[in-house]
Here is the input.
Amino acid sequence: MKRAFITGIEGQDGSYLAELLLAKNYEVHGIFRHSTNGGAVNLRHLKADPQIFERTLFLHPAELDDVDSIRVPLEQCAPDEIYHLASQSHVGASFEKVEETCRITGLGALRLLELTRKLPKAPRFFHASSSEIFGSPEQSPQDETTPVNPITPYGCAKAFGTQMTRIYRKNFGLFAVNGILFNHESPRRGENFVTRKICRAVAAIKAGRRQELVLGDTSAQRDWGHARDYVRGMWLALQHDTPEDFVFATGKLHRVQDIVELAFQAAGLEWQKFVRQEKQFFRPADPRQVIGNAAKAKNLLDWQPEISFEQTIAEMMAAELHAVLNL
Ligand code: GDD
Here is the structure.
């Protein structure tokens, strides 16, 4: 039985990855933040299953800021694979919390790499990197060779973690890989990210609990995939013969406005009556032309996204409508 260690197991990606690995008969260990008390919604179904919880799934309280709190469960687990997914992952918030973002997202990755290197038997290491490392690139679509040139504090912190992962691979011989992940969504997405924010608001409007949806730049474009596809990519990246970086993306661009239209349509409402834009949600800098080329992942890992943008938004809307209206 293989053992995996996941930071950020309570998040969208961590919870889908835990499910995937448990289905592949892994023993899964994850760390959760004291502040959440291990009660995250995304893991409730796994914790409620006596066949799984504390038999093949183990949760440990730890903070990325406190190396010792991670070292103990990590050494006990002695994993074959580490998936480092935890970070301060909100790009907009990174402008307000610059130092904290660099500490958690950038330095956090380095701390994990250093702990990994010192384990008696170094496990394979996956770092969740981001398309934000490219900033607003000259070259489109982006791939593993695109110059790193972040324009947001979050992107800068991820660039640091990404480059450190490469340094540990080259200099310390770690099987360390970066998955350069473009946006990926699901009903488990955090509420501050634009897809979930829109879907939640539309369902609340449908239920008569809200009157409007206030957004930032609705012309902003992203390459949006589904999180379930991307965690499969993470696992595949660690099964490959050699440690390599991989872009995971759909290669398709959509606008925030497209999400708005699909979500309101799913609820049978006219978006024009409810949506307005406000300065507070515009970002000081927002990458443009963020679109990925995942050809390397397709060629070497046989990975490609299976869930479309439209299916993703439909699944998210169905979940939100069900939550508020039992529809
Ligand atoms: N969050 C938010 N809220 N975004 C808005 C809003 C709003 O009201 N209005 C417009 N947007 C625009 C943002 O300016 C951005 O261009 C786009 O919607 C997507 O924003 P987010 O959903 O917050 O995601 P992100 O692209 O900034 O970052 C996500 O993807 C990265 C790449 O995978 C995060 O998940 C990052 O952690 C991740 O690395």
